[in-house]
Write a structure and sequence with these properties.
Distance between the termini of chain B: 37 Å
Number of strands of chain A: 11
Radius of gyration of chain B: 13 Å
Strand content of chain A: over 45%
Number of helices of chain A: 0
Number of strands of chain B: 11
Order of helices and strands of chain B: EEEEEEEEEEE
Oligomer: heterodimer
Largest sheet of chain A: 7 strands, mixed
Helix content of chain A: under 10%
Number of helices of chain B: 0
Largest interface: A-B, 29 and 29 residues
Chain lengths: 117, 113
């Protein structure tokens, strides 16, 4: 099946610094990628939809200036957590569906565990 | 906002027993999907059932869908310790052109060896 690679798998950073998370579709082109956030023992919550070549669409309550999304190519989307604070500590997961994928599965990255100290 | 609910929230069974998880959703759907998540990992797709299907099998998995009740169930037969994971149902969000998924609250399954 298709592969989505997410990097890094974990990161520890100091408060006030920025962290970039990459999400790549390895063997298909993804015009749209999705970023989710997951707190311990909870479900995935959609943060934003990343659109290749245009601005991301953010969910209500998600600060677009804090969570910067760039989708410069059909295989790469990045999420940058700016000026990170301890409350941003969470598990971030990206997902992609291929261009035809309305009735197909979504493919997920391995997730990134962010810890802000 | 979270689309649907799953029950039970947690389930602990012995190896060899069957595990049943239920999911409810709120909007109209083209299909419903089930995913598995090992602790601290990404999600793995298990099975997709279309809105015009009532039941689907894949190996030890059996999924049912009742669109009149907006509910689905996942049955894992003859469970193994390796089945220990969280299981989520997911449906496509109509407001995203049915591309983004919204997930149920999940069931944490523990299979005791």
């Amino acid at each position: 099946g298709a592969v989505v690679s997410q990097h890094p798998s974990w990161v520890i950073c100091k408060s006030g610094t920025s962290v970039k998370i990459e999400c790549r579709s390895l063997d298909f082109q993804a015009t749209t990628m999705f970023w989710y956030r997951q707190f311990p023992k909870q479900s995935l919550m959609l943060m934003a939809t990343s659109n290749e070549g245009s601005k991301a669409t953010y969910e209500q309550g998600v600060e677009k200036d804090k969570f910067l999304i760039n989708h410069a190519s059909l295989t790469l989307s990045t999420l940058t957590v700016t000026s990170a604070h301890p409350e941003d500590s969470s598990f971030y997961i990206c997902s992609a569906r291929d261009r035809e994928g309305l009735n197909t599965e979504a493919f997920f990255g391995q997730g990134t565990r962010l810890t802000v100290v | 906002s979270q689309q649907g609910e799953e029950d039970p929230q947690a389930l602990s069974i012995q190896e060899g027993e069957n595990a049943t998880m239920n999911c409810s959703y709120k909007t109209s759907i083209n299909n419903l999907q089930w995913y598995r998540q090992n602790s601290g990992r990404g999600l793995v797709h298990l099975i997709l059932i279309r809105s015009n299907e009532r039941e689907k099998h894949s190996g030890r998995l059996r999924v049912t869908l009742d669109t009149s009740k907006k509910s689905s169930s996942l049955l894992i037969t003859a469970s193994r310790a390796a089945d220990t994971a969280s299981y989520f149902c997911a449906t496509a969000r109509p407001d995203t052109g049915r591309r983004a998924l919204t997930f149920g609250s999940g069931t944490r399954l523990q299979v005791q060896p």
